[in-house]
Amino acid sequence: MTIYIDIDYKCYVSAAEGRRAIETNEFDGKCPEWIESYRFVPADETWTREDGEEFAGAEMISPWKDLGEAYAAQTVYLTGKLAAAEADIAELDIALLDAEYENITGGTDDE
User: Fold this and answer.
1) pLDDT confidence of 107, banded at 50, 70, 90?
2) What's the CA gap between 44 and 46, in Å, rounded?
3) How buried is 86 (Cβ within 10 angstroms: 0-12 exposed, 13-18 middle, 19+ buried)?
């Protein structure tokens, strides 16, 4: 997936001035609030914290803000994905039952 990072390596889900696109699989299946709670330092880059401590890339991923809201948003996101998947499965079940019924009856409603 494509994420966008600013000069402080904070992540975003949309492009904007001062952000650059990065391809990564690290946030697959995550909601926007979750992604935007993280800092991502790509391989071969270094981020220097305000206190001077350096963090080498090798694709460093670390939250930069409290994850309380992100956890709640991720739960809602996954619950929605689960409900959509369950609805898809129910539709497939009905289609399979219809096909099986048609196969058994030869496509007629006569008994």
Assistant:
1) low
2) 7
3) exposed
